[in-house]
Structure formats: structure tokens, C-alpha cells
């Protein structure tokens, strides 16, 4: 009886902690959403209101139309860069992870360890060397330079993620395909990749979000306003005297919409991919 009572109290405590953690996590997002519908007078008012007294869509109208619709230009820039980063990142990660999963070669463990160590360093440490490399090749203020930088940053995690997933695919399937006459690349393309769709979805989502939300590299490598990505573009609402929080909030909400749509569209693959990638059968 005492054990059951103690277990109930423990369960209650755990649920309270989880509820508080959920509130703390969700509150900033809800507050930004609320602020995006507030007029400027309410945003800078001394009275704090969670629900707007006079909700308005003017902030969204301004964001979408100011400076000759430049926000839409930033949206296209971000979408194109994120798409290309996802394409390049998934291709490089899939081929590298397959090699680490299936082949034995000199330096295999060292290579895997180097990918793991690379994840331990903050991305800011790579800004200077990447800047020098991109500048030396004349790729500043170009999509190519930013895509290469983002692919470099996301590659270590993607390789580890896909390697764990490839390890769960029975080698016998590939051997049977070889017997039927498929080449090594044909086996990889026609057998392994279709079976790896959940893992590829996780990798693609990570690469996409990395490129979509990134700020430091885009700010460093792009100095022309028409080439800004969305996170850098929002910086224009911050100046030395004040910050237009109502416009910033509206822009932040608009930025999250494509990622949320992508997540709900691919959530089935994402969930199964995260689960399968952590086990080896």
C-alpha cells in the first residue's frame, strides 16, 4: 500500500514538472504570436496584456509589403538555400554513411570519431575559416557559398544519423540484389535508399531547419539586402534606438509557417526514422 502511494506521489510530481516544462517552452511562442497581433501602442504600453485588446493584421500587412515586398524576396532566398542545402546535405550524408556502414577501410573509425568531435564545437568557431575559404573562391554574396557552409555544418550529424539507420537494414537484401545482377550503386539506389526513407526524412528535416533558421553565417557571408535570408532580414527591425517588436513578432510567425507545414507533412517518417536510427537489428 505504501509503495502504491509513493508511486502515485512520484507520478504526480513528474506530471507537474512536465507540465511546468511544457508551459515554459510554449509560453514564448504564444507570447510572440500574441504580440504579432498587437498594435504598436499596446506593444510599448506600460500595461502588459497577454491577449491583444485591439487585435490587428496591420503588422502582417506591413511585413509583406514594406520596401517593395522585400520580405517575399527574403522568403525566396531562404527557401532556395534551404532546399539546396537539404539536397546537397542528404546526398553527401547518404553516400558517406553508407560507406561507413557497409565497407571496411583504413581510417574508418578515425573518420567516424572526427564527425563526432566536430559536433562538440560551436558553429561560431567555423565562421572565420569558412569565410576565408568562401572568399578565396569568390563565393561571398552567393547562394553557393552559403549552401556549402550549411552543408558542412549539418553533415556530421546527418552522417551519424543515417549510418545508424543503414546498420538496421539486413545485408542479405543487398547480397540478393547483387546475385540478381545489380551493381553496387544500383543496390544502393534501388534497395537501400527506398528502405531508408524515414532516416532520409529525418536527415532532410534537420538540414532544412539548419539552413532555414541560421543567422550568423548568413549575416557574415551576405551583405547585400536583396540577398538576405529571413532571419537576417528580421534584423532590419532592430536599430540603435529601439526594436519594432510587433513587426519582429509578425515576421517570426511567418518564418515558422513553412517549417511547421514541412513537419506535419513528414511527421510519420520523422518519428519512425528517429526510432529506427537508434537501434540495430
From TrEMBL:
- Any one GO biological process: maltodextrin transmembrane transport
Q: Which GO terms describe its cellular component?
A: plasma membrane
> Which superkingdom?
Bacteria
Subcellular location per the Swiss-Prot or TrEMBL entry: Cell membrane
Q: Which GO terms describe its molecular function?
A: ABC-type maltose transporter activity
> InterPro entries recorded for this chain?
BP-dep_ABC_trans_perm (IPR050901), MetI-like (IPR000515), MetI-like_sf (IPR035906)
Look up and give the membrane topology term.
Multi-pass membrane protein
- Chief localisation class: membrane
Phosphoprotein as UniProt keyword:
no
* Membrane-spanning segments: 12-33, 74-100, 112-134, 146-166, 187-209, 245-266
Q: Give a yes or no for keyword Transmembrane in this entry.
A: yes
Q: Which UniProt keywords apply?
A: Cell membrane, Membrane, Sugar transport, Transmembrane, Transmembrane helix, Transport
SUPFAM superfamilies (UniProt xref):
MetI-like
Q: Which PANTHER family match?
A: MALTOSE TRANSPORT SYSTEM PERMEASE-RELATED (PTHR32243), MALTOSE_MALTODEXTRIN TRANSPORT SYSTEM PERMEASE PROTEIN MALG (PTHR32243:SF50)
Per the record, the similarity remark reads: Belongs to the binding-protein-dependent transport system permease family. MalFG subfamily.
Q: What is this protein called?
A: Arabinogalactan oligomer / maltooligosaccharide transport system permease protein
Task: Record the organism.
Answer: Carboxydocella sporoproducens DSM 16521
Amino acid at each position: 500500500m505504501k509503495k502504491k502511494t509513493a508511486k502515485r506521489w512520484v507520478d504526480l510530481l513528474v506530471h507537474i514538472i512536465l507540465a511546468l516544462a511544457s508551459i515554459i517552452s510554449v509560453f514564448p511562442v504564444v507570447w510572440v504570436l500574441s504580440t504579432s497581433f498587437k498594435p504598436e501602442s499596446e506593444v510599448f504600453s506600460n500595461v502588459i496584456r497577454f491577449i491583444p485588446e485591439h487585435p490587428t493584421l496591420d503588422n502582417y500587412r506591413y511585413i509583406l509589403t514594406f520596401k517593395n515586398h522585400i520580405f517575399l524576396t527574403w522568403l525566396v532566398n531562404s527557401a532556395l538555400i534551404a532546399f539546396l542545402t537539404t539536397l546537397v546535405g542528404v546526398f553527401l550524408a547518404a553516400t558517406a554513411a553508407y560507406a561507413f556502414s557497409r565497407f571496411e577501410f583504413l581510417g574508418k573509425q578515425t573518420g567516424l570519431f572526427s564527425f563526432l568531435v566536430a559536433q562538440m564545437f560551436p558553429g561560431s568557431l567555423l565562421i572565420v575559416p569558412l569565410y576565408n575559404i568562401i572568399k578565396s573562391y569568390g563565393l561571398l554574396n552567393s547562394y553557393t557559398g552559403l549552401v556549402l557552409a550549411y552543408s558542412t555544418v549539418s553533415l556530421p550529424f546527418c552522417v551519424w544519423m543515417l549510418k545508424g539507420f543503414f546498420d538496421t537494414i539486413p545485408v542479405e537484401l543487398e547480397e540478393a540484389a547483387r546475385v540478381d545482377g545489380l551493381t553496387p550503386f544500383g543496390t544502393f539506389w534501388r534497395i537501400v535508399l527506398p528502405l531508408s526513407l524515414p532516416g532520409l526524412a529525418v536527415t532532410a528535416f534537420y538540414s532544412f531547419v539548419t539552413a532555414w533558421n541560421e543567422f550568423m553565417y548568413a549575416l557574415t557571408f551576405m551583405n547585400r539586402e536583396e540577398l538576405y535570408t529571413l532571419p537576417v532580414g528580421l534584423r532590419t527591425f532592430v536599430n540603435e534606438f529601439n526594436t519594432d517588436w510587433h513587426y519582429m513578432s509578425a515576421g517570426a510567425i511567418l518564418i515558422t509557417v513553412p517549417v511547421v507545414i514541412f513537419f506535419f507533412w513528414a511527421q510519420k517518417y520523422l518519428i519512425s526514422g528517429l526510432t529506427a536510427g537508434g537501434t540495430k537489428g
